[in-house]
Structure prediction request, 102 residues.
Amino acid sequence: MNCKSFVACLAILGCVSVNSLSVQAQEKPEPKVEESRDNMRDLELGSRAPAKFQRPEAGLKDWSKRGLKAPSKEAQWVKINNKYVMVQTTNGQITEIVPARK
Prediction:
């Protein structure tokens, strides 16, 4: 192998290795937008409560001790932030909102 061929092979090898290094560089991950913990919004009568408040385990069992009236059929009282909210278990509709007493 003559000197010119050897130098040409080294030059090609160097170009290929430099190009492969740039391809292997890790890109900086894009920042993620995180949702709020409960994905809550302002509660309004007639709007839908988040699905987790429609589940039976979210319902307040001691609603009478908290000064709340008996929930209507297929509804339950839940505490969302600083409010007691009556939620229909069938469709999640909010039928009543009462401020929580401290």
Summary: The chain has one helix and three strands. The chain has a mean pLDDT of 80. The helical segments are 3-24.
